[in-house]
Amino acid sequence: MKNVQRSHRLFDPKKKEPFRLSRSKIELFVECPCCFYLDRRLGVGRPPSFPFNLNNAVDTLLKKEFDMHRARGSRHPLMKAYGIKAVPFQHERMDEWRDALRRGVTYLHPSTNFFVTGGVDDLWMGDDGKVIVVDYKATSKVGEVGIEADWQMSYKRQMEIYQWLLRRNDFEVSDTGYFVYCNGQTDRKAFDGKLEFDIKLIAYTGDDTWIEPMLEKISDCLKHKEIPAPADDCDYCTYREAAHRATGQRSLI
Questions:
Q1: How far apart are CA 147 and CA 141, in angstroms?
Q2: At 94, phi and psi to the nearest 5?
Q3: How far apart, in whole angstroms, are the C-alpha atoms of residue 162 and residue 171?
Q4: DSSP for residue 214
Q5: What per-residue string of b and e applies to 216-228 under the rule 16 or more CB within 10 Å gives b?
Q6: What is the pLDDT of residue 123?
Q7: Region at 170 (left for phi over 0; alpha for psi -120 to 50; beta for the rest)
Q8: How many helices (H) and strands (E) does the chain have?
Q9: Residue closest to 75 by CA, chosen among 147, 132, 152
Q10: Using an 8 Å Cβ cutoff, are 88 and 126 in contact?
Q11: DSSP character for 4?
């Protein structure tokens, strides 16, 4: 089963070596400690979601576009349009930092022994010498895109984790990051074999002070033998509970 994790990726309180904890797994804990515990301690992950192939295509093309300016040391037209004094950050480890599955930006957190990882979309360098975290987003909706919806809190936490990781790698990081938000347009007369996007740059001022206390909570959670209570609004836990009741089996949560 694809949602059952390999044993060597699971947390074992008896082991002394660092435990790899990705940005997405931190988000999973924030969403539901029960689902996180089942995943990282017991090896039962949530059912996989459908791949976002169109979103991935947008990410890939944006990276290629910004990489052209990275190679030239020039500002992207989007930066000029929004008055941002920056250029794409040139660094020999950019490809590594972007690869969330293999590496990403990493930091060994001493008090929890977590090897925290996260793969960035892009980094810019401001004229003040600070690194700017940039994240690409794609959607298709009527009207302006924004980052104020409750479900978009995960976007903000994502950026803050990247900012925190880079700071722990001794980079001077700007508090302000940017979302390059692409909105697919459906008001065109015809498809004509192409999907056109309006692109908006959204600034966000991050605050990473929540991250280290959260890592301590995650560490405490993983060390306990008992499964934590599910989040009140977790659809996965609600489904599991309903399935157990319907089949007359003892609930795990």
A1: 13
A2: -55, -45
A3: 11
A4: H
A5: eebbebbeeeeeb
A6: 98
A7: left
A8: 8, 8
A9: 132
A10: no
A11: B
Whole-number Cα distances in Å, 102 to 95, 98, 174, 199: 11, 9, 26, 29
On whether the CB atoms of residues 40 and 27 are closer than 8 A, the answer is no
Tokens 């609930």 locate to: 251
CB-based contacts of 148: which residues, under 8 Å, 6+ apart? none
Q: Which residue has the tokens 């910004």?
A: 66
End-to-end CA distance of the chain: 21
What region, left, alpha or beta, does residue 228 occupy, with left being phi > 0 and alpha being psi -120 to 50 degrees? beta
Confidence of residue 253 (pLDDT cuts 50, 70, 90): low
Q: State the DSSP string of 7-74.
A: GGGS--TT--S-EEEEHHHHHHHHH-HHHHHHHHTS-BPPPPPPP-HHHHHHHHHHHHHHHHHHHHT-
Phi–psi pair at 22, nearest 5 degrees: -80, 165
Domain coordinates in residue numbering, the chain:
7-48+215-247, 53-208
Q: Do residues 219 and 114 lie in contact, with contact meaning Cβ atoms separated by under 8 Å?
A: yes
How buried is residue 101: exposed, middle or buried, by Cβ count under 10 Å (0-12/13-18/19+)? exposed
d(CA 246, CA 251): 11
Q: pLDDT of 4-57, one tens digit each?
A: 444 458 999 999 999 999 999 999 999 999 999 999 999 999 998 877 778 889
Task: Please give the full DSSP string across 131-154, using - where no structure is assigned.
Answer: EEEEEEEEE--SS---S-SGGGHH
Q: Backbone phi, then psi, for 162, in 5-degree steps?
A: -60, -40
Phi, psi of 184 (to 5 degrees): -65, 130
Query: What is the SS3 assignment for 156?
Result: helix
- The DSSP bridge partners found for residue 139 are 183
